[in-house]
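Researcher: Excuse me, tokens okay?
***
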Amino acid sequence: MPKVNLRAIDRFEDMLRRNYELVKGGRTYEEVGAAIGRTAKTACTRYHDPLSMTLAELYLLCKANRIDPAEFVGGELRIRGDIE
């Protein structure tokens, strides 16, 4: 049975996963793993279990994508661009 009322930690984990997915974009896990100094398998594990991501990995992921780590963990990221 699906959870109806997610706990705060579950909502935070879902938000991290969505942010990770947005940052990953079309890159492979090999590319993401190289950016965080880990293997492709670890990069994939971090997607499926974002709460296991270390602060160092989070920092390197954000640095590689020019994102403020506070924005990554502080709310859901949005794609920004010029609106015509």
